[in-house]
Structure formats: C-alpha cells, structure tokens
Amino acid sequence: MDRLRSPGGCPWDARQTHASLVEYLVEEAYETVEAIEESDRDGMREELGDLLLQIVFHSRIAAEDPVDPWTIDDVADGIVEKLIARHPHVFGEATAETAEQVEANWHAMKAREKGRDSVTDGIPAALPALVHAGKVLSRSAVLAERLPELPAQAEARTAIGTPTSEEEFGDLLLALVSAGREHGLDAESALRRATRRRISVIRTSEGLS
User: Which position among 5, 12, 174, 187 has the lowest Cβ density within 10 Å, counted as fewest Cβ atoms?
Assistant: First the structure.
C-alpha cells in the first residue's frame, strides 16, 4: 500500500480518500457476512483479506495527514489497549461469570469512556433498520424492568407462536414484509420509525427527555 500510494504507484489508489472508500468498506463487510452465513471458509478467508485491505488503505491515508497522522500500528495498539481495558475480569480484578455480565460491563465502560448518557447513544443511525432495532433492543435490555412492553409485543407473541427454527422465523418476517407491501407500507421505513419511538421511550425512562 505504501508503494501504491507513493509517487510512481497506482493513480487510482493515490487519489482515494477516506470518504471515497466508504462504499468499498461497506461492500466488503457485507460480502464477509455472506461468506460466513454460507459457511464458505475459502470465501471467508478471501473476504477477510479484502476487509483487512480497507483497514490498511485507510491507515495509509491517515499516515499522510499533515496535522494528525497515525499508522496501522497505532490502530493495532489502540485495539490492544481497548481489549485489555474492557476485560478487567481477565486482565484485572473484576469478575464476570456469564457472557451477559461481560457484555453489560463492556457497554457500561464504553459509555463512561465516551461520556454517553443513554444506553442507545453511539448506535449508528445509518445501520440497516433490522440491525439498528436489534442493537437498540439489546442495549436497552438492562433497563427491562423500567421499560413498558413494546406496543405490539402481545400480537407478536401470538403471531410467532413457538418457532422451531430460524428458517420458520425468517419465513414469518418475510411474510410480514409481504403483508406490509400489500398495504403500501415499507418495512425498512416503518421499522426505523418504530425504533426511533422506542429510543424516545428509553431516553425518557433514563430521565434524559
């Protein structure tokens, strides 16, 4: 990458910026997910390499910044420091007996580090609606006793019954999307709006709005 970005290297690589590479970063991430979901180990290896290329690429661009340069080594050092700090039950004196406790501790420490007030702060709004909703629900699980039930929770439990597999659950979700389309409703937009309403409820329960 140093050679590609240096004089005499590749004109295309040399003109890229952090912003121009965003679409490739997203694309490679989704292709990696697809390889994982298809249990394609050869594909995973290839796609992880493509994803790593994006990290190397962005780090090389950052190293050229005249005001605040940093390198791939700084990126690696940062994640090592973060892993140590976020795992006090391994590298320190704290205890965490379950994966749920570890996750709760992780989010709590992250909130303190970044000065966040709500458990929903820091969740990228640009995430796909379903991923965004899942993140909001996961983060707010620690407030379960303080939050009202989701408006359509009872109907959802009735509709879903007791799914015996992920495939059955997926078919139900697809059928809901189809039913919405029959009434001119867009599932992505509808879920985004519902998630925003839930975030408002969560922030209210936290005394933030």
Answer: 12
